[in-house]
Amino acid sequence: YDNVGGDLNEGFEVAGPAGTDLSSYQITLYEGADGSVYSNRTLTGVIANQMNGFGVAWFDFSNVSGTGVQPGPDGFALSLVEGGVTSLIKFWSYEGTFAGAAGPADGVTSTDLGVSEGGSGTNSTPIGHSLQLCGTGTSAVDFVWTTWTTTNSMGSINVCQTIPNPNDL
Q1: Is the predicted pLDDT of residue 9 greater than 80, yes or no?
Q2: How many CB atoms lie within 10 A of CB 33?
Q3: Is the separation of the CB atoms in 11 and 62 below 8 Å?
Q4: Which end of the chain has less Cβ packing within 10 Å, N or C?
């Protein structure tokens, strides 16, 4: 979201068990200054089996509302919509925390990723690098955010992630 020379290939990967239908999930982008929503997208597709029964799906947000993913402090939420009820799954932010003032994270304080690209608008992150969850496991708590220094994975398991074989657990 804050690359040298312009923001390219901005988006999100959603990870989970292979076969998960993503049509009931949404990503909401938040403006950190006032907690408002500046974009909301219902996801599509099914997660493929890329490693031991898990995988990821890539969603391009390069031209969201004509701006792409904004420099922080801003944030994003992942939520599940079932039977007309929206349930917040995660609400992350970058370059600071704030409270959501609308959408699925209304009234919820974000969790800062703890890493950022370029640092507060300096645009120093090389194109192709990304913020990624790294670690070993099968649950979100098994991974930590890091600034990855190689090409972003855009639809593949991150190079810094290992999903163990269920027979080895």
Answers
A1: no
A2: 11
A3: yes
A4: C
